[in-house]
């Protein structure tokens, strides 16, 4: 069993053992796409959903994944079983391939697959986090999960320096998403969430939160909403695969939300129920 596992192009070992060729295009251009999900009981959560988005992202960037979806599904499941622990962070990416540095690439180039798995924990969904806001200055491929994460790095570091956990982004006053999460709001018993367009990533956790709302009879509106609506919301919900659903009661140092914990907790409990049913776990963290 590994404490941490790394995989690159068929080679398996520890992160210190597995070497990546110098000319892998990720080094020069961040030329690739990725996915990540938690695993419980050595079962990668919602793996099929993440693989669907992984292949969609690769197709949008004209990157050729070196194996079919079913084969990759089996590989990720098999690798997860080789890592110690009860709950894991499961990450995988594909880069365009190996070639001398040139912006232009060979159309027949086959991508290189990476996998990284380590023990981890599901985030604390019971206590609020602090967030701040920032103009969304990223390029307009927000719907593709690319390796080009430098803006997210900068936003996250700025937030860390300010003592907050996440950055809510906006374009001309319209809320888009967060630095590494989606953000939705509850108002008068309704869930409002930015539509899946080119400005945001179609979050798997967000999608399953919306599906949970349908099952619970909570009305859902996928539409643009403003910073003013965010600050006036009954609840501000932050969703990601790693943490399922978090909430904030503090934006830019001002108290907000936390006015409808009953509805928020109904959604949270339904998401946890779904996770337990999928993975066979009986608790969030071992």
Walk me through what this model shows.
This protein is of the alpha+beta class and 286 residues long. It has 2 domains: 5-119, D-amino Acid Aminotransferase, Chain A, domain 1, CATH 3.30.470.10; 129-279, D-amino Acid Aminotransferase, subunit A, domain 2 (D-amino Acid Aminotransferase, Chain A, domain 2, Alpha-Beta Barrel), CATH 3.20.10. 28% of the residues lie in helices and 29% in strands. The protein is built from 7 helices and 15 strands. It has helices at 25-29, 47-60, 69-80, 150-162, 204-216, 227-231, 261-279, and strands spanning 5-8, 11-13, 32-40, 43-44, 87-95, 112-119, 129-135, 166-171, 174-178, 182-187, 190-193, 220-222, 235-240, 244-251, 254-255. The strands form 2 sheets. Strands 7, 8, 9, 10, 11, 12, 13, 14 and 15 form a 9-stranded mixed sheet that branches. Helix 5 packs across helix 7. The radius of gyration is 19 Å and the shape is globular. The protein starts with a strand and ends in a 7-residue tail after the last helix. The model has no long low-confidence stretch (mean pLDDT 96).
Name a few traits of the molecule.
six-stranded antiparallel beta sheet; 28% helix; alpha+beta; 286 residues; 15 strands; D-amino Acid Aminotransferase, Chain A, domain 1; D-amino Acid Aminotransferase, Chain A, domain 2; nine-stranded mixed beta sheet
Distance between the termini: 17 Å
Rg result: 19 Å
Order of helices and strands: EEHEEHHEEEHEEEEHEHEEEH
**CATH architecture assignment of the largest domain:** Alpha-Beta Barrel
Q: Give the integer mean of the pLDDT values.
A: 96
> What number of domains?
2
Helix and strand content put the structural class at: alpha+beta
Tell me the number of helical segments per DSSP (H or I, 4 or more residues long).
7
Helix content: 25-40%
What CATH first level of the largest domain would be assigned? Alpha Beta
Task: State the shape.
Answer: globular
Binned strand content? 25-35%
Largest sheet: 9 strands, mixed
CATH-derived topology of the largest domain: D-amino Acid Aminotransferase, Chain A, domain 2
CATH superfamily of the largest domain: D-amino Acid Aminotransferase, subunit A, domain 2
Number of strands: 15
Note poorly predicted spans. Answer: none
């Amino acid at each position: 069993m590994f404490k941490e596992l790394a995989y690159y192009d068929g080679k398996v070992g520890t992160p210190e053992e597995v070497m990546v060729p110098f000319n892998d295009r990720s080094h020069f251009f961040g030329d690739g796409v990725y996915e990540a999900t938690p695993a419980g009981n050595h079962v990668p959560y919602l793996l099929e959903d993440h693989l669907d988005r992984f292949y969609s992202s690769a197709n949008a960037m004209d990157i050729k994944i070196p194996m079919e979806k079913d084969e990759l599904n089996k590989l990720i499941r098999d690798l997860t079983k080789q890592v110690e622990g009860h709950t894991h962070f499961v990450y995988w990416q594909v880069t365009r391939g190996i070639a001398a540095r040139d912006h232009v690439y060979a159309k027949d180039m086959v991508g290189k697959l990476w996998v990284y798995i380590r023990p981890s924990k599901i985030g604390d969904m019971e206590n609020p986090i602090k967030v701040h806001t920032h103009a969304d200055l990223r390029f307009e491929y927000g719907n593709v999960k690319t390796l080009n994460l430098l803006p997210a790095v900068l936003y996250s570091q700025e937030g860390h320096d300010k003592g907050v956990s996440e950055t809510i982004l906006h374009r001309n006053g319209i809320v888009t998403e967060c630095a590494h999460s989606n953000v939705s709001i509850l108002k008068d018993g309704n869930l409002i969430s930015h539509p899946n367009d080119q400005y945001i990533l179609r979050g798997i956790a967000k999608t399953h939160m919306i599906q949970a709302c349908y099952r619970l009879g909570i009305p859902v509106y996928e539409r643009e909403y403003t910073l003013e609506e965010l600050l006036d919301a009954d609840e501000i919900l932050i969703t990601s695969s790693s943490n399922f659903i978090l909430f904030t009661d503090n934006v830019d140092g001002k108290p907000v939300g936390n006015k409808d914990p009953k509805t928020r907790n109904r959604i949270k409990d339904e998401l946890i129920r779904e996770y337990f049913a999928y993975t066979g776990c009986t608790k969030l963290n071992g």
